[in-house]
Amino acid sequence: MNLFIFCNRLLRIVSDYLRTAVLIVYRLLVGRKPRSYNHHNHVRSILRFLFLGEDTLMPLSIAFQSNGYHGDLNILKPLFSDTILGTWAIDQAGIDVIWQTLDKVRPNVIVEFGSGSSTLVFASWIKQRNDSEHRCISIEQDEREAEVTRSRLMKYGLAKYVYVMVAPVNKDGCYELPHDIIQEIIAKQKVDFVFIDGPSGPKGCRIHARKVVVPYLEKPCYWMLHDALRDGEMTIIKQWDDVQDRCYGICPVGQGIAFGLWGK
Fold it and tell me: Which of 28, 55, 222, 257 lies deepest, with the highest CB count within 10 Å?
């Protein structure tokens, strides 16, 4: 291996671990309290000056990865006993934030972009509400991932609470939804909660989620955005945080979770 390439890679590894250590200390100081976009952007500017690479607000996954869920929600522990959280899946602190938000907002119709562990969280919350008016539509771009999610829902008796739909994405990373099916599922109720953890595609492509779901929204509609501390998602948050839409903050847990209102 070329010495220059070796040294460059070594420097990048050291930089990533040092940055992660700094972010761990920072998160211990601020806790799970949401902070504004401007606050996180200021921290990002400092870290960009000190460290190499992109997504400098994102620590290495070793900082929040766990084998299963070990939080306070006992109803969820069996669901994730064989799951590694905090990699592609949402981390356990993020699960707590989502559950607390659901308890606060109490949505009737949830639309989720990107299925997975979060789908089981939504299904479990709806089940414990014991209300037939609640429902979740999970939109997944990959048939194999959708089938994995369906199997997990079936395994834990949660399948009836979620409709997992496969919708491809175009070259811009925008879902192409079958609107007739969406309308049939939503029926008389409009969407009042959107969780965005997909699609996988070009940097910043999740900005299209709002446009895709707008025709079906109850206004105001509560939204949450996962991976919110990545550079692409930070750009999205900045664009949504205007007169009509409001971002209330970003929780520095896992990959970051932003939340706010559309159409306030």
Answer: 257
